[in-house]
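[User] Could I get a sequence and C-alpha cells?

[Assistant]
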Amino acid sequence: MLRAAARRTRGPLALLAGLLIVTTVTGLAAPALLATAVDAVLRGSGATGPAVAWAAVVVLGAGCEAVMAPLGTACAAYGARWMRVRTVGHLVGLGARPPLPAGEAVTRVVQAASQAGALPAAFAQWAVTVAGSLAALCWLWLLDWPSGLAFTLAVPAAVLVARRFVGRVTEAHAEYLAAQGAVATRLLTALAGARTIRASDTLDAETARVLAPLPAVSAAGWRMWRLQRGTVWQFGLLMSLTEALVLGVAGFGVSDGRLTAGQLVAVAGYLQLSFQAVEQIDGILGLAQSRAAAARVAAVLAHPPLRYGLGGAPDGPGAVSLRQVTVRREDAVLLDGVDLDLPAGASIALVGRTAAGKSLLAGLPGRLVDPDRGEVLLDGVPVREFTRTELRRAVTYAFEQPVLVGETLHDAIGYGWPGLPRAEVERAARAARADGFVRRLPDGYDTALAETAMSGGERQRLGLARTLARPARVYVLDDATSGLDTVTEAEVDAAVTTSLAGRTRLVVAHRVTTAARCDLVLWLEAGRVRALAPHTALWTDPAYRAVFAAVEGVPV
C-alpha cells in the first residue's frame, strides 16, 4: 500500500529525496571545510578558499532546507489525497457488507488516510537522515577513532529508546484514533435520530452517550504526551553525556597532539550530525503516528472488494434464475438453498414476514449481496461474469429511503447518467408522479437539491424517478413506495406498469394492494421459498393472509 502511495507521488518524492541527499552531503562537508579553515587561520596561511567553500555549502544547505519544507507538505498532501480516494472507493465498493460502523469509516478516511498518505514522505526524510547520521559516524571514526568509539558506546541505548518510543506511540495513537472513531459513530447515529431525541426529551442523555468515549481519547492523548516527554529527557541526558564523553576524548587528543584545533571543531560537528537520526523527536513522533494510521487503513483495504467479470454479457429479456443460493451472516442462514426461475417481463412481488429474506433476495441480481453458495443468473449468464458497467445497466434499484445525490433535482434524477436530456428526466418524474411537486418549486428541475425541503414520500418519488430514468432489463423496487398514500401508490404503480411494460420487476411488498397488482407473488418464509404463484391463488391460504395481518391488520 505504501509503495503504491509512493508511486503516485514519485515525482515530488524523488525531488524531495534529492534535496535531502544534497542537504545531507552539504552537512557532511561543512565540518571538514570549517576544520580546514580554522587550522589555516591558526597556521597563519590563507583561509579564504576553505572559508568561502564552507560558506557556499552552508548557503546551499539552507536553500535546500527552505525548499524542502513546502515540498514535503506537498508530498504529504498528494499521498493523503490518493490514500483517501483509494480508501473511499474501497469502502463504497464493499457494498452490503461494510466492515466498519459509519463513524469509524469516516475517521479512517478523514484522519487515518491523511496521516498514512504522509508516511512515504516522512519515511524518506527519516531514511536519508539515518543514512546521513551513519555517514557522519563513519567520518567521525575516520577522523579520530577514539572519539568514534566513545560515540558508538551510546548508540545501542539510543536505538533502544527510539524503538520503544516508536512502538509505544504507535500503539497509543491507534487507541486515540479508535476512540475518535467511536465518538464519530455515536455522533452520526445521534444526528440521524435528531427528531426522535428532541421528541423524547433525551438531549442530555444522548449528548452524554455521544461523548462517553472522550475519556479514552484524553487518556490516549495524555499517554502520547507522557511518552514524548519521557523520551525527550532520556535523549537529552544521553546526548549530553555522550557529547561530554566524545568532546573529552577529543580534547585529550588535542592536548596529546593527536588532533588539531580544527579537527576538534570537526569532531563536534560530526557528533551533532551523528545524533540527528534520534534527536528529532517530533519527526519520530510523526513517523509513529503515520505508521499507526497506515495500519488502520490497511485493515480496511484487507477486506476483499467485489470482483466483476471481464467478458461481455449478451442482451436478453431479463429472466432471473437462482440455483441453490445460500446466504449466511455469521452462524445464521438467511437464504437457504433457494432455486428459482423468474419469468422475463413479469412483475413479481416479494412477500414475507420480517427477516424472511425479501430485501436480501432482491439484492442478488444486482450483486448488492453475493451468495455464499450457489449461482445467480440473468438471462442464463451468471451475474458475476458481468462487468460492473454491464451489471449496472442491466439491473437497477429503487429503495425505501433513497439517498439523493447531485447539485439540482435534475442531477438527482439523472444521477449515474451524465448528460441525460431534460425530456427523459421529466418523463421519469411523470411516471413516478414527481413532476407535479417539482414544477411547483421556484426553479423547477433546476432547484438546488440541498435547499429543497421534501417529505419522505416526495423523496421516494424522486428516487423512483431516478430508477425509471435508467434503461435496464431488471428493475428492483425495494419497498420504494412505502411512504406514499394508497391513492398515490396506485397512480404510481399504474404509471410504472405502463412505463416498464415488458420489463422484469421485482417488488418488495408489504401492502396487499401492491402484491395484488403484480403478476406473481414470491412468498418467502424463513429464508426459503414457500410459493411462487398469483396473488389470487395464494389469498385462500390463511398463512399467506397472516403475512399482511401484522402490517395492515388484514383479517386472517
User: Anything to note?
Assistant: The beta strands are 320-329, 332-342, 347-351, 373-378, 381-382, 395-399, 474-478, 504-508, 520-525, 528-533.
